[in-house]
């Protein structure tokens, strides 16, 4: 028999004895403390009592060591006071001691002694009895102690009003959505900041118990609490941010504070293009494949599959034939950063010279029940035309210039409508910047169509230089270059144009765009339709550049309709002839009659008035005795949550002012919170740009005769 086994058995018996007598007493002490001081104090008392019992049991067990075991074994007559030989090293014993040790070990194996302490049943029974008495006292202890002093009878004590309920214990458990993989958290704080869709579980304890209890939200919603024993609990799925209070019937002792629930939205996945590096790529003359590489990232994982949309465009201008294909791709790598790769077979798509291939990847995250989608930027592969393929061998003689990619009117409308759908998820600066980018595309398209009407630049044509000061060579070259793409008549003799000759002035400063032999002109009706389309594009561009795509869409749709009419018009060949103007009625000249003339005064459109609710509330809060319509302000806040940086701060300030109408600090706090929501004052008019070199010469020429007259 191993002596250490005897020691372990004795220690185990001591542990059981101490625990059997101490645990009931600890439980009774915790119940009594919970009854007297509440759930939190009872939990602390129970924990401390159990720790004390465990400490005592460990200390009692560790007192049984090797010396205690030797002393107990020596009490056995058959071991002949030689138990210490069992724990000595064999090499330190002489032959006689080794023989004695073997004899003792043989006797222990034959009849091992029982060294475990006996169960102290009388003491254990006393402990159990004391624990039962303490538990009974805790259960029978009155909830509200009645104090009966001298001169007060029992009937007067019974007629005394009961104390209002008070909040004694709180617990809020937050369970994130299952797709996030995050653990459940719980604590005594009733403020929560969690993902949208998280499950909230409240557990509250009152003393004394109220008749009813509920959670009152700032928007008027009520969430009733259900009683379960001494606790009141309820559950809710977090969908939007808000403030709430704990309300009871009868009312709680003290108004209490407003608790805050803040929703953390799950951001959509982000798609990054790894290859190709540029959005617009020009294909090699004999390229067969187009490699595409993407990376999608999300905080809680991206779906394993993605969809690659391939769009082929054949044709030019507005008459383009589109074909779309959808390809399912499988990603690789971790769920939070998946990579997708695909090599586009250009021959399988059936594209040829001059065609374009547009690729865009769409991914989804693991959000449940409705996943969020994200798309990559559109990647464009432009195949070279047949003429470019034929001249591909002349790399040193031909300079290749990639034509600028511009959007069609239909694509501008699609982009504007897509931007309006994303308005709620974007901040004001990002929304305005994207609208301005669409406005730039509208401007490029307007200039492209304006070429058919002879437009060359944004501004009007510059006037020829005056005769008072001849421009220098550098100035003349900067004002108009000879290599601007137009044909200029060169004087063979190098003489200047004759003054007053319309032909020479046109040849010197004009451009002959249309030749009767080679150029085609649009008929007047088609030109009028195209002019109307350009006017609508101008209006659409103006609203887009100002960040109002909703106001630009009607003009964009009208421009698209006019463009379709121009496409259906027939082009005619006209000879260059002089205009046939109607004869002038000399009887009507210099008569001064204004019959039939309308009012040509500029009519400014009425300016949209901003909502006066925050302005009126801000002004009313400045006076200490002025009434503030908090209900109207709450409705305005629910309708315009994007107007202020943090709507919950304003909601909390409104709630605090409701609870304390005479609180001057609360009024000032709400007034400070409303400052960012006030409309900005219009800025001063922009200063006119300074005159350039030509403008200064023109102004000097106007002032010269006046100085001469003086």
Please supply descriptive tags for the structure shown above.
710 residues; alpha+beta; six-stranded mixed β-sheet; elongated
Shape: elongated
Number of strands: 19
Determine the number of helices (DSSP H or I, runs of at least 4 residues).
Answer: 19
User: Which bin fits the share of residues in helices?
Assistant: 25-40%
Tell me about the largest β-sheet: 6 strands, mixed
Radius of gyration: 46 Å
What is the rounded distance between the termini? Answer: 137 Å
Structural class: alpha+beta
Approximately what portion of the residues adopt beta-strand conformation?
15-25%
**Could you list the spans in which at least 5 consecutive residues all have pLDDT below 50?**
144-161, 394-406, 459-520, 570-576
On the 0 to 100 scale, the average pLDDT is 76
Question: Can you put this structure into words, describing what you see?
Answer:
The structure is a single chain. This protein has 710 residues and is of the alpha+beta class. 38% of the residues lie in helices and 18% in strands. It has 19 helices and 19 strands. It has helices at residues 3-37, 39-62, 66-74, 95-110, 121-140, 154-158, 346-349, 386-390, 409-421, 428-450, 473-479, 502-509, 524-545, 549-568, 613-622, 630-639, 647-659, 664-674, 693-709; strands spanning 166-175, 185-187, 192-195, 199-207, 212-217, 222-224, 226-228, 231-237, 242-249, 259-264, 270-275, 280-282, 289-297, 305-316, 319-330, 337-345, 356-364, 373-375, 379-382. Strands 12, 14, 15, 17, 18 and 19 form a six-stranded mixed sheet that branches. Strands 2-1-4-8-7 form a five-stranded antiparallel sheet, with no helix packed on it. Strand 14 and strand 15 (319-330) form a beta hairpin. The chain is elongated, with a radius of gyration of 46 Å. It starts with a helix and ends with a helix.
């Amino acid at each position: 028999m191993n002596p250490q086994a005897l020691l372990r058995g004795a220690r185990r018996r001591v542990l059981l004895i101490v625990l059997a007598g101490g645990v009931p007493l600890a439980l009774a002490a915790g119940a009594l403390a919970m009854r007297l001081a509440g759930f939190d104090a009872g939990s602390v008392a129970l924990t401390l009592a159990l720790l004390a019992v465990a400490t005592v049991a460990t200390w009692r067990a560790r007192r049984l060591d090797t010396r205690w075991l030797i002393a107990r074994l020596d009490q056995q007559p058959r071991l002949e006071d030689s138990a210490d030989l069992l724990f000595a090293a064999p090499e330190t014993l002489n032959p006689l001691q080794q023989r004695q040790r073997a004899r003792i070990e043989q006797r222990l194996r034959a009849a091992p002694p029982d060294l475990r302490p006996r169960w102290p049943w009388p003491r254990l029974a006393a402990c159990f009895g004391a624990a039962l008495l303490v538990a009974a006292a805790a259960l029978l202890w009155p909830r509200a102690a009645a104090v009966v002093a001298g001169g007060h009878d029992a009937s007067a004590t019974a007629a005394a009003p009961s104390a209002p309920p008070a909040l004694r214990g709180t617990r809020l458990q937050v369970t994130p959505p299952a797709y996030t993989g995050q653990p459940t958290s719980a604590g005594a704080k009733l403020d929560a900041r969690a993902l949208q869709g998280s499950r909230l579980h409240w557990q509250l304890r009152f003393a004394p118990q109220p008749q009813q209890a509920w959670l009152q939200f700032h928007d008027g919603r009520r969430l009733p609490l259900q009683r379960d024993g001494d606790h009141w609990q309820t559950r809710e799925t977090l969908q939007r941010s808000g403030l709430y209070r704990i309300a009871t019937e009868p009312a709680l002792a003290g108004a209490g504070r407003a608790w805050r629930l803040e929703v953390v939205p799950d951001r959509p996945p982000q798609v990054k293009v790894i290859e190709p590096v540029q959005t617009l790529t020009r294909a090699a003359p004999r390229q067969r494949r187009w490699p595409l590489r993407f990376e999608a990232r999300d905080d809680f994982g991206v779906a394993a599959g993605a969809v690659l949309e391939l769009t082929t465009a054949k044709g030019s201008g507005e008459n383009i034939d589109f074909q779309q294909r959808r390809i399912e791709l499988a990603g690789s790598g971790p769920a939070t950063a998946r990579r997708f790769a695909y090599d586009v077979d250009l021959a399988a798509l059936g594209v040829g010279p001059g065609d374009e291939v547009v690729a865009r990847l769409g991914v989804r995250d693991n959000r449940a029940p409705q996943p969020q989608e994200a798309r990559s930027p559109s990647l464009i592969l432009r195949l070279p035309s047949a003429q470019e393929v034929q001249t591909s061998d002349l790399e040193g003689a031909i300079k290749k210039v990639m034509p600028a990619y511009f959007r069609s009117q239909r694509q501008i409308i699609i982009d504007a409508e897509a931007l309006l759908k994303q308005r709620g998820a974007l901040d004001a600066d990002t929304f305005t910047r994207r609208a301005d980018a669409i406005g730039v595309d509208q401007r490029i398209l307007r200039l492209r169509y304006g070429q058919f009407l002879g437009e060359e630049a944004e501004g009007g044509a510059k006037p020829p230089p005056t005769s008072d000061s001849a421009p220098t060579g550098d100035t003349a070259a900067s004002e108009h270059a000879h290599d601007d793409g137009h044909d200029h008549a060169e004087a063979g003799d190098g003489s200047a144009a004759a003054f007053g000759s319309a032909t020479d002035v046109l040849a010197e400063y004009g451009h002959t765009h249309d030749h009767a032999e080679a150029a085609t002109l649009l008929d007047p009706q088609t030109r009028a339709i195209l002019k109307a389309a350009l006017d609508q594009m101008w209006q659409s561009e103006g609203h887009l550049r100002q960040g109002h795509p909703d106001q630009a869409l009607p003009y964009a749709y009208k421009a698209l309709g006019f463009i379709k009419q121009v496409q259906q018009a027939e082009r005619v060949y006209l000879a260059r002839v002089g205009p046939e103007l109607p004869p002038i009625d000399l009887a009507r000249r210099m008569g001064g009659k204004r019959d039939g003339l309308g009012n040509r005064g500029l009519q400014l459109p009425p300016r949209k008035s901003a909502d006066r609710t925050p302005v009126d509330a801000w002004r009313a809060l400045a006076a200490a005795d002025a009434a503030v319509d908090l209900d109207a302000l709450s409705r305005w806040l629910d309708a315009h949550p994007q107007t202020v940086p943090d709507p919950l701060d304003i909601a909390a300030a409104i709630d605090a002012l409701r609870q304390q109408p005479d609180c001057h600090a609360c009024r000032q706090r709400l007034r400070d919170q409303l400052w960012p929501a006030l409309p900005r004052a219009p800025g001063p008019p922009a200063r006119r740009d300074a005159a350039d070199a030509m403008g200064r010469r023109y102004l000097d020429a106007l002032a010269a005769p006046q100085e001469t007259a003086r």
